UniProtKB/TrEMBL annotation:
GO biological process terms held by the UniProt record: base-excision repair
Entry superkingdom: Bacteria
Keywords: 4Fe-4S, DNA damage, DNA repair, Endonuclease, Glycosidase, Hydrolase, Iron, Iron-sulfur, Metal-binding, Nuclease
Domain Helix-hairpin-helix DNA-binding motif class: 130-149
Family: Belongs to the Nth/MutY family.
HhH-GPD domain segment(s): 50-209
Name the UniProt record assigns to this protein: Endonuclease
Organism name: Geothermobacter hydrogeniphilus
InterPro entries: DNA_glycosylase, Endonuclease3_FeS-loop_motif, Endouclease-III_FeS-bd_BS, HhH-GPD_domain, HhH_base_excis_C, HhH_motif, Hlx-hairpin-Hlx_DNA-bd_motif
Lineage: Bacteria, Pseudomonadati, Thermodesulfobacteriota, Desulfuromonadia, Desulfuromonadales
């Protein structure tokens, strides 16, 4: 296959070129992913909080319960009795902890943004991100998911799949921590929410289908020829 990977040894390919080539290889293989599955920015944010430490299928059940209870609006969710909210989101796990976080989140929106998440997300990226990170239970991955998927802000989401893939590709920057890996994407790629959205979704599907945590299926992986781990598993 022609392209930048064939023109230089892997460890000498500039980061921008490398990341763009990985993106195009994934896009060519999988096509557009059309993430994130939600009807409103607020629902997207609720999903980002609920998906912590659980599978998306469980979040879908919890979101469905909230929708049937007409509780997918800021005021309605905020006003639910805690035990009722816990019952509705129980399928997502850690329901007591997540119930508290959801109601703290809605209280923050009511107190600071007239109950409108779009006002929070319309702020400059750095300001909105810093505000989200100050909320209890909102870490970097959750904050960046809300910014990217609910706010359309170009904030790259780093998750376990991203660390797994780029660890196997031997392209983890610095100590491989969240901030270093996010900075690599943010500083090396155009600030495009659409591209960041698609890139993250493509990484997720690659890791689910091929770059699995255990017993990766390297033979048919679109990146295997360029992957040190893949070359050992072929």
């Amino acid at each position: 296959m022609a392209g930048p990977f064939n023109q230089l040894p892997e460890n000498r390919v500039p980061t921008t070129t490398y990341l763009q080539r990985v993106y195009h290889l994934l896009f060519e293989h999988f096509g557009p992913q059309h993430w994130w599955p939600a009807d409103t920015p607020f629902e997207m944010a609720i999903g980002a909080i609920l998906t912590q430490n659980t599978a998306w299928t469980n979040v879908e059940k919890a979101i469905g319960n909230l929708r049937r209870a007409d509780a997918l609006q800021v005021a309605a969710l905020h006003d639910l009795p805690p035990d009722e909210l816990q019952r509705l989101i129980r399928p997502a796990g850690f329901f007591r902890q997540k119930s508290e976080r959801l109601q703290l989140f809605t209280a923050h929106l009511i107190d600071n943004h007239q109950g409108d998440i779009r006002r929070l997300l319309a702020q400059p990226l750095a300001i909105a991100r810093d505000e989200l990170l100050k909320l209890k239970g909102v870490g970097p991955e959750t904050a960046d998911s809300i910014l990217l998927y609910a706010g359309g802000q170009p904030s790259f989401v780093i998750d376990a799949y991203t660390r797994r893939l780029f660890g196997r590709l031997d392209r983890l920057p610095g100590d491989g921590g969240y901030d270093d890996l996010r900075r690599m994407f943010m500083e090396s790629l155009p600030a495009s929410a659409a591209m960041f959205n698609e890139y993250h979704a493509l990484i997720v599907i690659l890791c689910k289908e091929y770059c699995r945590k255990r017993r990766p299926l390297c033979g048919n992986c679109p990146l295997s020829v360029h992957c040190p781990a893949g070359s050992m598993n072929r």
